[in-house]
Amino acid sequence: MLKLTMALAAVAVGATAAAAPALAQQNEQFLPSLVYRTGPYAPNGIPFANGVADYWTLLNERDGGINGVKIVFEECETGYATDKGVECYERLKGKGPTGAGYFSPLSTGITFALTEKVPGDKIPLLTMGYGRSESRNGAVFPWNFVAVGSYWTAADVAVQHIAKELGGVDKLKGKKISLVYHDSPYGKEPIAALEERAKKNGFTFKAIPVTHPGVEQKSQWLSIRQDRPDYVLLWGWGVMNSTAVKEAAAVGYPRDKVIGVWWSGAEPDVTPAGEQSKGYKALMLQHGAGKFKVHADLDKFVISKNKTATKDDYAQVLYNRGLLNSMLGTEAIRTAMKKYGNKPMTGEQIRWGFENLNLTEARIKELGFEGMVSPIKLSCQDHQGADVARVQQWDGKEWKIISGYYKADLSILDPMVKDASAKYAAEKKITPRDCSKES
Amino acid sequence: MLYRETGQFKTSYAADMAIFPIRQDRIALYVLLAIAFIGIPVLDALQVWPFAGEYLLRAILIPFLILSLAAVGLNILTGYCGQLSLGSGAFMAVGAYSAYKFGTGVHLPLGLFDIAIPALPVLPSILLGGVMAAAVGILFGVPSLRIKGLYLAVATLAAQFFFDWVFIRVQWFTNYTSSGSVTAPELNFFGLIVNKPVERYLLCLIFVTVVALLAKNLVRGNIGRQWMAIRDMDIAAELMGIRPLYAKLTAFAISSFIMGIAGALWAFVYLGSWEPLAFNIDRSFQILFMVIIGGLGSILGSFLGAAFILVLPIMLDQVPHALGIPISVETVSLLVFVVTGALICWLLIVEPHGFARLWLTGKEKLRLWPYPY
């Protein structure tokens, strides 16, 4: 009988839980956050999620939301798994008075799956520095915004930096560059761009896959020791990055010849390897670690009031990237409000906001992001808006910026974007929009 | 009193051999099918709670149906024929990628002669995906003639890793996409584009109903009895004249066929765009757990197990938020693991034969109600 009572109680609790009416308040903008605070990618997922949430909290605390519209946000744990990500997307997409504003899944796999779903639901997908590289073409991918940089941008900039270190693009000829990559759509994305560069600049390119989650890389680094490439590019995520740095040290491969993508260039990637990671380089998605003007406000309105989950990761690379991600999203909402009025925006309106987003030098300064990001302008045709990146180096304690801005070679990348998006359009029977007719 | 077959006389052999010989069972099944086929679409059209929005259909019912289908497939192999398999994910992947290839056109230059099949419509693609999975299942089922139990599990594990590798490495299967992720073709069934959640749900439901009925009939018939004889004692079965080769390989073929269809549906209908990680070893374990928790050797158990393993964690995940308890998603997702794990342990201690046996016990009690002795 006791069992029965307990079971009934459990059912009753479950029923009331499910039936709890969602208190829909009118002047609220709902923003979903797909996070992974558990699993092998958590060391990198947590700081990003904290940055994303803290910027939204800051806007609520300091300005009372966006133009008076309060931000309401909810996190959903994906664990970096695609099917869980899809479930989270379905769970959050309809919440709030106008539905979810935009999604940033921070996973290439989930991005690919959601790319199929967002056109039907009319919700933009902000994939800052990841996702489908060809989704830069807004005519074919109206809902994807691979803002600030794609993997192809990253690959191109990495090769440019190598050329600079070698003393000129012509010095690339005959050199060997290997790519150690996470064996998933994420890691495979840069291969096309690197192969293109290899053809053009005459270096030998070799791609070496590492199986998810990437804690086992012995054989890959042994083959690197045999092969002795001049440079190794690292396209890892989560525990794979620190493992790669450790393995590089174990086979005695010089760390300053290893260049990671901007997802392999944060504190959790190097600190576990300790002294061994000294000298390791990584690209920057424009910004680095450290405090900027926006952090003063964060200190005042969020951190000191204890409204955050951030601890050690405050002002670290990925935390700052989370801030940037939220800033881009909320600025797109602000842009949309200029056209549609100061009320909660629908996904469709926010998409318009993204396409007309113009972050000028002055606006970036006003927002307190000066020094973190250079001006970005998105348009109907161009959903990326920027092609620049820098390189940083780990000195054992912190990331040091060691280069100026490189601009990706669009004469190589633009035709690739065009081809790949045309192929996608043909496969999915999409008729590209005519961007000259968009307002 | 309510649930008793007293007075239901069988006057023909057909009546005697019906799937559900008790009238109440038949009525219950009809009611269930009516709810699934008519009730849920109507509720969805009216947008009644909990059908408001698309969440319940898209994120719960569709994956539940597809994984139930996979569990039915594995249950035939493991539950009825007693062949332990850890290769479910691989067979699903074979189904998904074959369906993708057939759906986008197969072109295989072989030097002397080229195989070129134009892009097929979705339905034949999915069915052919099942056929390919069946072929692979037979191939990987051959070792079962010599090895048993855990050793066979390891052999099927080989299938799992082999196909993980194949679909990542052999770019032909992914039509040479740069990222290795593929997107499903348009779901066009005889001119009807299946896109709305309720349409997708009905599509899965039709597949599941047809396959479950076929499976139920198979396991009641000659071949099902052969499987069960092999499961219970293969030497005795052989002495009785059952050919292990035939029995085991048919079990592998049919089970893989069903899992292949489930894989194709998972890729085409649920995910839409996928990578080999969607069918990795975790998927195999998930389906095996569904079968064990649901009840080995029970078609109904497959559905109950799928509901438990898939739906319960999702529900648990949402309870704290729905109740307004302010704990972080991190803690919640860890709690979900703990609670689900504890429930599985508790269930297996209380009822090692899974939900299907609980169901049977319940039915027995109901027959004696209200005068148990």
Explain how this protein is built.
The complex is a heterodimer of chains A (439) and B (373). With 439 residues, chain A is α/β, with parallel strands linked by helices. Chain A folds into two domains: 27-149 and 290-387 and 419-437, 3-Layer(aba) Sandwich (Rossmann fold), CATH 3.40.50.2300; 151-284, Response regulator (Rossmann fold), CATH 3.40.50.2300. Helix content of chain A is 44%, strand content 14%. Chain A contains 14 helices and 14 strands. Chain A has helices spanning 2-19, 42-63, 82-92, 108-121, 151-166, 185-201, 218-227, 239-250, 267-270, 293-303, 317-340, 347-355, 361-367, 410-428, and strands at residues 28-35, 70-77, 125-126, 144-145, 176-182, 204-210, 231-235, 258-260, 281-284, 358-359, 376-377, 388-394, 399-401, 406-407. In chain A, the strands form four sheets. In chain A, strands 5, 6, 7, 8, 9, 12, 13 and 14 form an eight-stranded mixed beta sheet that branches. A two-stranded parallel ribbon of chain A has the order 1-2. In chain A, strands 3-4 form a two-stranded parallel ribbon. In chain A, β12 and β13 form a beta hairpin. In chain A, α2 crosses α10 and α11 (317-340) packs across α12. The longest helix of chain A is centred in the C-terminal third of the chain and has 24 residues, at 317-340. Chain A is globular and about 65 Å long. The termini of chain A are far apart. Residues 11-24 of chain A have low confidence and may be disordered. With 373 residues, chain B is mainly α. Chain B has two domains: 22-53, no CATH class; 54-107 and 115-368, ABC transporter involved in vitamin B12 uptake, BtuC, CATH 1.10.3470. Chain B is 69% helix and 4% strand. Chain B has 14 helices and six strands. In chain B, the strands form three sheets. A two-stranded antiparallel sheet of chain B has the order 1-2. Chain B has a two-stranded antiparallel sheet with strand order 3-6. In chain B, strands 4-5 form a two-stranded antiparallel sheet. In chain B, a hairpin with a 4-residue loop joins β1 (106-109) and β2 (114-117). Chain B is globular. The interface between A and B is large, with 48 and 44 residues.
